[in-house]
Amino acid sequence: MSQTAYELLALGLRYWFVLLIVLTLLRAALLMRKDQRAYRRVLRQLPDAGLIGELVDLSEQTAQPLPREGLIGAGRNCDIRIRGLRRREMEFVFRPGLGVRLFPLHARHGALLDGEALQKSGAYALHGTVLELRGRPLRFRLFAGLDLPARVVYTPGEDGFKEDASLLRQGDIACPELLPPPAPPGAGLENTWEFAPLPDGLTQPPGHGQHDHPSPVWPREDSDG
Amino acid sequence: MAKQNARQTEWLVMPGVLFFFSAFLLLGLKAMDWTAFALAALVPLGFFIVCVLLPKLLPADRLLLCLVNFLCGLGILTLYRLNPARGLDQVVNYLVGLCGMIGCLLLVRFWHRLIWVVPMVALGALALMALPLVFGTVKNGARAWVSLFGVSFQPSEIVKVAMLLLMAFLLSRRMVLPGLAFAGICLGLLFLQRDLGTAMLYYAITLIMAYVSTGSLSFLALGALGAGAGAVIGYRMNTYVQNRVRIWQNPWQDPYGISYQVVQSMVAMVNAGPWGTGLGLGNAKVIPEVETDFIFAAVFNEFGLVFGVCVVLIYLMIFLRGVDIARRANSKFHTLLALGCSCMIAVQTFVIIGGNINMIPLTGVTLPFVSYGGTSMVSSLCIMGLLQGVANANDRGLKEDQMIAMLGEEG
What we know:
The complex is a heterodimer of chains A (about 220) and B (about 400).
Chain A: H1 3-45, E1 51-57, E2 62-67, E3 69-73, E4 80-81, E5 90-95, E6 99-104, E7 112-113, E8 116-117, E9 123-125, E10 130-133, E11 136-142, E12 152-154, E13 161-163
Chain B: H1 2-31, H2 34-57, H3 62-82, H4 84-109, H5 118-135, E1 136-139, E2 142-148, E3 151-153, H6 155-172, H7 176-193, H8 196-214, H9 217-237, H10 239-249, H11 260-272, H12 295-303, H13 305-328, H14 332-356, H15 374-410
Antiparallel strand pairs in B: 1-2, 2-3
Helix pairs in contact in B: 1-2, 1-3, 2-3, 3-4, 3-13, 3-15, 4-15, 5-6, 5-7, 6-7, 6-8, 6-14, 6-15, 7-8, 8-9, 8-14, 9-10, 11-12, 12-13, 13-14, 13-15, 14-15
């Protein structure tokens, strides 16, 4: 091809190249927006997406959604925000097949797990486990990991490990079911998939998944009644 | 839904296929170059296979894959135009990088089973990082290259991937001090190699990841102070840093001396105008290191301002997609990993494009996916593999949630 013809062709094709990259960019932007909308739609259908249950404050009979992992404390960046605690009190991580692992962030945490002192190295909470943090009893109500056996408590001086009698029902260990085990007696909560009542004056937004609401405290919605 | 996604991806891929076909065809017509004609068939075909057919075999984020592959293709095209031998080398680098990307995707997928490799990865990364101090060769003032058994590579590029994985792992397990210690040792070794551009990149990513992990503003403030102090010390101790700052302040004071590279880059971009000089008609070859540090100037020169802005927007979109993947992640490890990966690509892009247009002082880092360099291409694609792995984990997490919801309804 002659130099002149090539130059003419290359100069003409400049606009074609720009058009193609603009098209690529526009289509990518559209696809991204479409994907985000579809994701939000799925989250609306799955209000519990990213959650594994809830943490019920037994002293106030309020509950907060429990993500797969996060932080408990009084600070604004905490996933479970409870007044009266330290800014960052404890971290938790859900480990499939094991339960919710708790990591106290301070040496003098004074936390109790089902009445037993929580070790700094961490311990697992299961459905129905009561965590006492600075005198506030908090119960784990899980809808993930319900196939786990009842909580095993170590009692030194006896015959090693034994099952927590308050949570044990005959056959629970032998054949774990995919249904929630019964809540411990006297808690005033029924064995149900439903969440415990929300804090007074707070309403549950339509999609309260971890993805939609990084803040653990739901905003007041006056129009919702 | 999957069929619809695939169709949408095909629509996204088509302009790319047409772009590479017409561009390589044009290059072939210039001097009846049969290699260019072959590439006009192979590059679009490879682009189509990777963007449309690969996600059917291996779950991956199609949008991210398309955008990244478009940039890789653009890199091959520009390099082939500047130096055909290097363009063909880049094809090989891309294929190796693609294998690395798939490997990293699988690594994230099976990470819970591979945690035992963490200490080995940490030790291996530190050993690799120390390698240039022993066997290194000096290139552009930095002892960052190693030539072993006939293969030349830049260890700090490979360690980037390991650092992202390790930092995400350690910070997600509240092991902030070991994470910072690892990053600190890497930074120290980079300073000894005088590879300040990469050191700056490592520092920024460590700071971002540690801040996201701890949420501590005082930590961020301390990090910023440390960066300021490091910049001042670096400026005082190194004459070439002083030269870079001087060039940045006034490139025209010595346009045929120390500022030659930046001035030529700026001239090439100004000559381009909004639509460019035309493919094959540019004069970007006169810029020293045009294939690595100044590839953006070469793209800008031949394709123009509008195209250059679109390239920047593609990088921005990759970053935003990465942040979106991090936001959707179900675990802290995945969040930190995705955020680290997207920030790594974004910061690197900002640093080099900012240097090319003289917005910030020039540092010797490559433009991800586009610049010539085997290690750079492989590490950038591996980082994308990590990001794809997190996207894949998010999809699986969402499916699990759907299953739990279904069980709840049935129960």
